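Extended Data, panel c. Modelled sequence:
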Amino acid sequence: MSDQLAATLRLQVERKTETIKQGWPEIPLWVFCTTAGTPLDESRVRKVFSKVLKAAELPPHFSPHSTRHTFASLLLEDGEAPQFVQEQLGHSSIGLTVDLYGRWLTKRPIRGGVNGLDDRSGRKNSIGHSRCTGSGRFQWWAVKDSNLGPAD
């Protein structure tokens, strides 16, 4: 939940609390409601959603459920962790989330990619020589590293 949404919901709770404290007639407190404070009717939501799609020049087959997919794909596209998106959507497994939304995962290295692994070792390689051992499909390269000793 975003900070903005959390603040808005807190305000709703504060209103409800004030209503109870003041002894005012209790009215249902709906997050999404009509101007009269009654719950939204599903057919009305569809009608309004259809108008919004038309105004935005989006395909009419989109549904309110499509916004769930937009939410997930935008989070992943912005580099959010798949585990976080999984929790937000309530998926039972990370595999489901990645299968559905994997195409929006960041494809570029965020922190330098594999080069960052060299930095983690704290050692700088000084390549002196290398030689190939083995044969066929499997060949092993031995590299001299001044910090590790000869590659024998």
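The CA atoms of residues 73 and 103 lie 9 Å apart. This feature is highlighted in the accompanying rendering.
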